[in-house]
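Researcher: Good morning. I'm working through a list of sequences from a screen, and I'd like to move beyond sequence-only analysis. For each chain I'm collecting a predicted structure so we can compare shapes side by side. This is the next one on the list. No need for commentary yet; just the structure.
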Amino acid sequence: MGLRHKLLLRQWSVLSRFPDFRRLFLGNSVSLLGSSVTTVALPLTAVVYLHASPVQMGVLGAVAFVPHLVLGLPAGVWIDRLPYRRLIVLADLAQMLLLGTIPVLASFGVLRMWQLYVVIVLAGVGGLFETVTAQSFIPRLVPRAQLLPANSAIMQSNAAVNTTGSALGGVLVQLLTAPVAITVDALSFLLAALVKARIRTPGPVVVPTTPRRQHLWADVLEGLRAVFAHRIVRAVTISATIGALAGQMQAVVLVLYLVRDLGLSAGLVGAAIAIGGVAGIFGALVAVPITERIGPGRAFITGTFLAALAGIVLALASGPFVLMFLVLTVAQLLRGLGPSLYGVNQQTFRQALIRPELISRVNATWRFLVYGTMPIGALLGGLLGSTLGMRATLIISAAGMLLSTAIAFISPLRTLRELPAQDRPAGQVADEDQAAA
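Model: Good morning. Structure tokens for this chain:
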């Protein structure tokens, strides 16, 4: 049996042995497929249907980050006070209703840009709560020893769905028009909610260990302290935050660089992006054996280094077409492999090392810090691209990502060969036999 088949069987074993995790996995995959369609259909709705200006498109991209900046910190506290299963189902249903308003309004000819802004912000709130809850739910659905393969399976699914979903979105927009194509996303959230509603584990509602009145911001600060007091989680969070800022600088100029500097057609741009997607699928597949071989700390560092190296290699693409596209292919392979390798491990660190009663707050804090830097990175990338050029921006952003790698390298992650043991109260982690019942 080949290595690929052995790795796939290992991923499947996690899904087959833990039914509640399988339901969460399937629900997330279905909703992500619909969201990948909207990734294409929503901007096309704004550009083609509503004739949006560049400024309006910039606002449309920026408002997507508003939920993380405004609610990112308190979201973890609120999530802890509700059963996880109920919350993820309600979040999916809310996103279904919100996205469903777009094709309805378009069919009556009354859709406007401000309505798109409102839908994106409110659906983003639902997405924030759903994502943080799902990440916090996984340690309740699989044993601690299975967190890495479970996260690897989710990462692999995300990469595969994002790669195919964007292509599907283009086809649906062509066949149905952009606003109608968003209906697929709305229906995907309905199906995801139905699947997740079958999860048997309700998830905990955290109750304070000592009788006291709960203060929102005191609980938020407790989550922040949990992130920065733990030397491993602190190093991962700081590295990821700097890497996200630099990575977004690179992301906003990538397509412009491929089209204007390298002269690629739309078809070749799509092919280049697809190469990165396929590499991401493979990276998620091999993340577990690589992590087990070199340790989670070094695997995380390696992933950040590969992602940084991608920008440098991409900036070197030039010369005859065959050579240029070969260099571009190498860069996209690195761009796909790196995030899969560090992404699987950074999520596992938080789930395995943080006390259960703080996990939601830590996950929300992480998203606030990491996603909160992305608008800054996008603005910096656009500014540098317009003043220094695309190639220079790629190199500067890659330098920022190398700084992220250096921070991880000088931290305890460098010598971390296995996750430290953690005592956890009985009944807080799904037992294999109980989960399979």
